[in-house]
Structure formats: C-alpha cells, structure tokens
Amino acid sequence: MTTSADDPAHVHWAQEDIPASALWRSANGAPAPSSVVPVDDTITADAAYRLASQGVAMLWSGDFQNARQILTALEHRTRPRPDKSQRTTGELFYRYRQNRSHRARILGLLLVPMQAGNIIGLRRAPDVVAATVDAYGSISEASVVSLHEVLGTIGAHQWRTKGIPVAALNASIYPHYGTFFPVRSEYVDLVATAPLAAPNLAFDIGTGTGVLAAVLATRGVPRVIATDIEPRAVASARETMAQLGLSKRVEVQLGDLFPEGRADLIVCNPPWIPATAHSLLDAAVYDPGSRMLKGFLAGVRDHLQPGGEVWLVLSDFAELVGLRSRDDLLKVIDAAGLRVIGVLDAPAVHARATDASDSLHAVRANEVTSLWRLCAS
C-alpha cells in the first residue's frame, strides 16, 4: 500500500487483506515510506534485504530482539567492500557519501509499531519511553517508527544521561537529542585558548549545545548572546547554561544567524562540509552550498562593533576532499570586507583520525581545525 499525497504523515499497509494505517514519526525528518508490508520472525535476512533494496519498508510484528538481528544483518550487507582502486580523495569522499546514503535508506526501512505512551508493542521490547520522548515527544496515538532510528535515540539518551566531559569547562554537559555532541575537543580548545581582548558582549552564532558560549562566559565575557535556528539546540543550550550557572550571563535565542545589535566578539563554528545534508542530524556537519558560512561572513560586519573581532572556527576537511579551496575561503572573507589578523591551528585528535579501517583515514589524519581571527578591513 502507498502513502497518499494528501495524507503524508501516515503509512498504510494491509494486514491479512485488511487495510491498516498509523502515524509516521521520524525525529530525523525522513519521509514516510511509500510502500509497507507486514513481516515477522519468519523473514530471512536475504529476503529483508531484497525488499529494502526495492524500497519496500517492513513493519515488524514479531519479537523485538529478532528484529534487531535482522537489522544487524542488513548493516552487514550494506558495509562498504574493500576498494583497492587508486582514487582521489574527492572520489573516496563521494563513495563514502554514497554508501552512507545507501545504508541510511536500507536500514531505515525496518519499522516497528509504537503505542500511546511511547511503548513498542513487541515481545521482549525494551523500555524506550525516556529515550523516545527526547526524540519524538509524548506519543498519544498508534505510530510507526524506524527501528534504526529508535536504537539511535537509545544511544543518544545514554550519552545525555552519562554526560559528555568538556575539559575546557571542567564539567560535563548533557545534550538534547538532535544536537551536535561536542565529542571533538579541537574547536572547543581553540576558543578556550585564543587571545581574548576583554569584550563586553559576544555573539555565538549556531550555538548547538551552547558549549562555545559557555566557554566564552567562563573566560570572563560578561554577556553572551547565543543563537541557533533549531529549537532542540536552543533548548539544549539553555539547559547547559542553567546547569553551569551561566543563565544570567548567556542568553540563548532562536533565530537564523545574528541577533539584534552589535558585539565586540562574534564567534561561529559553522558546518564545515559544503554538501547536502541527508538528515536533520547531518545539518551540523553538512552546509549545502556553504549557505551558513557565506551568510555568516556576508553579514557579520554589520553586527560587529568598531574594533571588534570575528572568530571563524573551521575544519579544512572540505579542502582536503576538494570541495572548497583555501583560496575560495579567502575570497569570501575578502568580499565580506574582512581581513585575517591571525590563524590558530589544531591538528585532529578525535578517534576517527586514528582509525586505519576508515576509507577516509588519510584525510581525517591530516585534518586541521583552525580559528580564523578576522576584523573589518
């Protein structure tokens, strides 16, 4: 059965020739599958993979743990095969993105039912209430969700419960689902150590969890205004400030790029890869057409106090895979009426930089994150 154009929020299928439907939910913005068939413990991994490869979603009605085993089998079948061909870094990145997109599509097609109260109505299903409330809110009617996404909410909830240590803050933060977790320390450490000329007001644009705004406040900036376009990020950042006792000094606003007024220091760590985001979570890393980077640089001078400074924190990953050149970046900076007064670099220290099994290992090992200090030219 298909999802009708005038009913995009529901999925439809036939159970023993009886039409059925339920609300479609996706925390990552995935569209409702257009074709759904019921399956149970009798389906084989090969049959499941054939259906998924044809774009057919499978609504599971058997044992939850068996569904996880099928998902694991699908993950195995979508792993990239060893490629001994001599390829450019650009070609390797293209293949990497292709595989990620393929995996996401295949793995997202194994579905489970969720009842009112955020309960998965399957045998041996775990308690996912707390994790899925973070992602979907409270569910009050029969719904269908991707099993792969549900498992992701469980992992994110574990991170949120455990907390992520941030050395620059000498504390842990507890991000909301859907915000970019600051598990990479390079960009945080750069903001924590860059020369700071006692600004009265700082803006943190695209704050995410609020970690950079918090670092600025703990370094003595008396007032910080942090913005983000995503409501989840705003809620997460506000919670971060309350937890760290910084709510009176850091104001978090919902908005695209700049708040009103001018600041002495404006900081931005935009998504660093100019490519299409395939999910809401991807949007923290992928910036199609460098929209945020170019928008930030084009507008920042109008929000900068005379004599003020701009800190642009950016990885050179896009340069290493041929998606943007250093000259391209310098031209955008110059066109914005800005000039470079200094660059601080930090080599990659995150776990993926040492993973030799990663097809992009050579790129990640050579990646450098830079804090570009800019001022009006």
Automatic annotation (TrEMBL):
GO terms for MF: nucleic acid binding; protein-glutamine N-methyltransferase activity
SUPFAM superfamilies: S-adenosyl-L-methionine-dependent methyltransferases (SSF53335)
InterPro entries, alphabetized: DNA_methylase_N6_adenine_CS, N5-glutamine_MTase, SAM-dependent_MTases_sf, Small_mtfrase_dom
An example Gene Ontology biological process: methylation
Record-linked CDD domains: AdoMet_MTases
Domain of life: Bacteria
Listed PROSITE patterns: N6_MTASE
Entry's transmembrane regions: none
Protein name, UniProt field: Class I SAM-dependent methyltransferase
Species: Cryobacterium flavum
